[in-house]
Amino acid sequence: MSYTAKVLLVEDDREIVENLTEYLSTEGYLVKSVNTQKDTMEILEKETFDLLLLDVTLKQGNGYGVCTAVKEKYDLPVIFLTALDDEFSVVTGLDMGADDYISKPFRPRELVSRMRSVLRRSGRTQAVVNIRDIRIDTEKGIVMRAGQELFLSALEYRLLLVFVNNRGMVLTRGRLLDEIWDAAGEFVNDNTLTVYIKRLREKIEKDPQNPEIIMTVRGMGYRLGE
């Protein structure tokens, strides 16, 4: 299965690194972390990334210096993560070439939304996701299996995207209900969810009775198969 983007997190707070890495991983991102400018430049020489999440205040140096060094050498979008939310700090970061600026403490979903926006603007969004023989083009809203287009209802497509955006994570029925209720704009009950999962499996699974894409986790919920 393909990942949305490869992210380099430059942050020296271990708790933030652990929590953010775990959350972004459930959203489908590959995350690596470093905590100094030296380490940042060294890893960029060896690996390619799609996005840089950069803390302004580092124990060794500061994020502004890292941003300047990165922008001089690489075509890499940068989002600043910082507790400094005064106008001067924001303007300084943007003038140095940062693509966005989000203040701590931030809401993880807001960060992911901003990341997706920056990735789209920079042309680095992975619009196509492949799961087994299923191909999902998120820009065109098209789902195909073995080269044949599948016709999903709006809620079936939304449900599939919820699984894709939370790959590797077990989703409870309550969480799924919240997600598709928001999309439908009307109440969706537990029985309706059962029907939509059944319909979606009938369209995307080779054998709906033995699903390999939308897997049941007994007593917990569902998860996306690898």
TrEMBL record:
The UniProt record lists the keyword Membrane: no
Keyword Transcription included in the entry's annotation: yes
Every OmpR/PhoB-type domain range: 126-226
Alphabetized Pfam families for the sequence: Response_reg, Trans_reg_C
GO biological process: regulation of DNA-templated transcription
DNA-binding region: 126-226
Name of the molecule in the record: Stage 0 sporulation protein A homolog
Organism for this UniProt entry: Mediterraneibacter catenae
